[in-house]
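Shipment paperwork, digital attachment
Item: protein structure file
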Amino acid sequence: MSLKFTLNIKKFSQANEKLLDKGFFLRGTNGSDILLIHGLTGSPYEVGFVAKFLNRQGYSVTCPRLANHGGPIEILRDTPWPAFYQSVRDTFQQIKSRNPQGPIFVSGLSVGALFSLLLAYEFPQSTTGVSCLAPTVFYDGWNCTKWRFLLPLAYGTFLKKYFYFKEEPPYGIKNETIRGRVHEYYNQAKLEDTFQARQHGYAYYPVTLLYQHHLLNKHLVKKLSQIRTPVQLIQAYDDDMSSTRNSQFIYDRIQSEIKEIKMLYNSYHIITADQERETVAKEMTRFFDQLRSKFENKKKIP
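Attachment content:
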């Protein structure tokens, strides 16, 4: 990642633009729902393959767009993490209203995985299971900037609003064909671009969001020991953004009786779109199917 500084972000505002969509919903047939959450600065379409796979197995899958994603980057830049979580929480409540008897599963990619865990903490009776995909408690992968240890110095100053990290190869993708398509957009993208961001995510990552991620972590880590919902953690051994330390950190702190870590060995960070995306989808299906079977058996007990 390279660092960009600008004082002129306001001239890039496209506040009159309307979002093309707020995500997507795929109706299933087996009576079970999955809430699937994309990553910070990402897009619902980065989890599209997994969503379609799970839907073919009978699950209804809802993929919301996180608050202010797909709009002008200066609006996203100034959004606090509780607003992102609230957009996920609202969607979860809608699913509960639509399917009050459950089961309801939650999954998220990267920071989306952290929101999944927060839902499990807040709604333990309604969350049947969680699948964390490349969970990112720490940005400590091999492609993260070596200057990241200096970021806390900027968090307490107004300067954090004017620094942006530019995404650079491999963009969390090991597959060369897919990476090439992403590179076509990211390589020429400018700060003011928003239309393409709705599909591919943002090519720039505001430092303010790293600060919000820091605050989210402080909040979540205190809750991990109170989580007892079944949790699956899937992570790539060569994850370029978040090391395997992340999954182990969560695994060691949650109190779930059912918990597991699944490692991938031919992918980078965006495991929902990379070379082992089908493996990811199959592992999620296996995990959710087992929990769904237990859920149905409990319902049959008088």
